[in-house]
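#structure-requests
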Amino acid sequence: MLANYPIDPAVCRQYQLIKLAWNEYQCPPESLDQAILAKFEPQLDMAQKLMTAVLGSAESEQQKVTAQEVDFAIEHLQSQFEDPDDFNLCLEKQGMSQKLLHQVIYRDLLCEKTIEAQSQNVPEVKTEEALAYYQKNKARFSHPERRKVSHILITINNDYPENTRKAASARINKLRDKLMANIDDFSQLAMSNSECPSALQEGMIGTVTRGQLYPELDDVLFNMAAQTISSVVESEIGLHLLLCHEIYPAGETEQAEAVKAIRRQLNEHRKKKQQKKWISNLLAHG
């Protein structure tokens, strides 16, 4: 069994370091400075202590990890690198061969499976319990009015002839005239004219609530009808045209939807609580 294969604890620690670096900073450990690496030390100490205790437990002997699961985990880790050579270089810098990588991932997966198995017999939350929670906490399931919006931005900058206030105003009013004639041209006009990075997404800002945009934009957007173009609006970053795509009224989450979400969250909470209890007992008697 790979879990019982003698592995230098330092190698397991280096694998955990690779996982932490990618999970928190999306880069290999060698790209991080010493201050950040130092912050990882307590987490690495705990991970090593936990794995030793879990894999030494009788419960771990009841779990199985397949070769396919190990291969999938390696593929997932490798996919986070732009180039396979970068992945291999990272392993090399961490002093880890492919054989050792298979072994440490096997142990890591076995540890995860063992912990997860300890909550398998936790009773599931009943619909009645979730419904009672919903009725007691209805206010938590209300949501404010939201609006899906795109925009076109023309900045004002006197250093550029085309962006003086007069020129910018003329440009954006000309765009508005075109949109009033055919609102369906918004995406194309945003991509070719907007001076905001959102131009790459056809001007799309997304779905927002009050207070997320500049106050001047908020005031206009939340008084627009759906599928309409705003007048020209000025904010501190320039002149805007807004397209209000859709309006999602304020209200409460549907009861059935809320109850389903509550059951899912409470079930997860119960499982995590049971797992933590088992781990605490394990470490206390280790």
